[in-house]
Design a protein that fits this description.
With 419 residues, this protein is α+β, with helices and mostly antiparallel strands. The protein is 28% helix and 26% strand. It starts with a strand and ends in a 23-residue tail after the last helix. The mean pLDDT is 96. The structure holds adenosine monophosphate and glycine. One of its GO terms (molecular function) is ATP binding.
Length: 419
């Protein structure tokens, strides 16, 4: 099996790491990849994941058996449709299903039409109507840009001026939703799907705010934990009955089924689980904590997803816990410098800790340089989340570059019930 993975983040490094362990793999290519993936397979730095011609050419050149699409942008642009036309199997949704993530209006309408519990929302295209609506409200609401925004298209606020300014900026070139604000804790649930069947993976939570104690700006995610100590079988059953089963039924009815990963972002409220969003891919940094806990061969999982026999396949999952801490560049989630040299990173036993790179590159002398805002995810693995936390923070100490910073409290809010 020869696999091409699209993307350059720590999520794609984790996916590459997992494929590299597969007994089925005879070739592993990553486009464009990073310094970490380059140690496990062949990076194709000149192949742009959003350029289907380049991707198809690479598939032909390297005789690729299937493509695994990591990030949302190529999916929304229709890379899977183009690959299928060229006869190349791909893990990920076709363009019409990618709208479950790519359009908040589309996904809200889908949730409502299939009776999936979610916050009420009103759509606006017009600035005057939007402003009048906001001025008539009391209490916090959530504004969501319709299109993709890399985690920066959502504002939760009770300040009308802030909401109006944020919304007006979106309305210059997009539609928005004003959604009621929910309270609770968030969990991310990942389903593998083959287009007919699905299998759920252990529950994750990510830590989206930049500051300790969930303060500061929203980011793509500053850390993650898997599994989530609060979420027991009864809660998971409720989530599955109220939201996951109706989603897959709805997808079948609306012809949105696909082979790949579906991510459900829930707010766990006093009234039960409420669905905040779908993503049509693994989360980042959730993948970095979820994937090390999957014991099954990922080549076999990929085969089951592509050949519609997930019903006969039960992925094996470890009893361990994993916790990931993102090490970011100074200035992130605002503007930041790229190309900062990184000191040599220690290697840990894989059963204890893994360090996944994001958008790093290696120069001619073998020196690693940063290339993004979230630069590394340090993952600790252990018999419980406290141990995983200690190992993750130990690994964080080994990642050194000018201006490097991280949150100090990843996982903490879940620890009370853990032991
Ligand atoms: P989304 O992209 O829809 O998941 O929104 C990004 C983040 O905004 C979520 O992870 C939540 O932290 C927050 N958020 C979104 N919708 C709501 C809501 N209705 N109530 C409270 N917080 C929300
Ligand atoms: N961690 C959130 C996301 O991947 O969208």
């Amino acid at each position: 099996m020869k696999v091409l993975i699209l993307g350059s983040g720590a999520r794609e490094h984790a996916v590459t790491w997992k494929y590299s362990k597969s007994k089925r793999i005879t070739g592993l290519y990553i486009a464009p990849g990073n310094a970490g993936t380059g140690e496990l397979g062949v990076n194709l730095p000149d192949v742009d994941p959003e350029n289907s011609e380049q991707v198809i050419e690479a598939c032909r050149k390297y005789d690729i058996s299937h493509v695994f699409v990591g990030p949302e942008a190529p999916l929304a642009a229709g890379i899977v449709d183009e690959l299928k036309k060229a006869g190349i199997p791909a893990i990920g949704p076709h363009k019409s299903a990618a709208r479950l993530e790519g359009s908040k209006v589309f996904s809200k309408n889908f949730m409502k039409s299939h009776n999936i519990p979610t916050a009420d929302a009103v759509e606006f295209k017009d600035t005057v109507k939007f402003e009048t609506y906001i001025r008539g409200l009391t209490g916090p609401v959530v504004i969501k840009k319709d299109g993709l925004a890399a985690g920066k298209g959502v504002l939760v606020s009770s300040d009308p001026e802030e909401l109006i300014a944020f919304g007006k900026d979106i309305l210059k070139d997009d539609t928005l939703l004003v959604e009621s604000c929910l309270e609770g804790y968030e969990v991310s649930i990942f389903a593998l799907t083959d287009g007919k069947n699905y299998k759920l993976l252990p529950v994750c939570a990510d830590f989206k705010r930049a500051g300790d104690g969930d303060t500061g700006l929203n980011t793509g995610g500053m850390g993650a934990i898997c599994p989530v100590p609060f979420v027991n079988t009864a809660i998971l059953n409720e989530i599955e009955e109220k939201a996951i089963k109706p989603t897959f039924k709805g997808m079948e009815k609306d012809k949105l089924s696909y082979s790949g990963i579906l991510y459900f972002g829930f707010m766990m409220t006093d009234e039960g689980p409420m669905l905040l969003e779908y993503n049509v891919r693994f989360g980042d940094p959730e993948a970095q904590v979820l994937i090390p806990l999957i014991d099954s061969d990922f080549g076999n999982i990929a085969d089951a997803m592509l050949n519609s026999n997930l019903d006969e396949y039960n992925p094996r999952v470890s009893n361990n816990s994993a916790l990931g801490v993102v090490v970011a560049a100074e200035g992130y989630p605002g503007s930041y410098e790229k190309g900062i040299p990184v000191s040599p990173i220690p290697v840990y036993p894989e059963k204890d800790a893994l360090i996944f790179h994001s958008s790093t590159s290696e120069d001619e002398y073998g020196k690693v340089h940063t290339g993004g805002g979230r630069c590394f995810t340090c993952v600790g693995i252990g018999p419980n989340s406290l141990k995983a936390n200690a190992r993750a923070y130990e690994a964080v100490k080994g990642v050194k570059f000018k201006g490097a910073w991280h949150r100090n409290d990843i996982g903490k809010k879940f620890f009370t019930n853990d032991q």
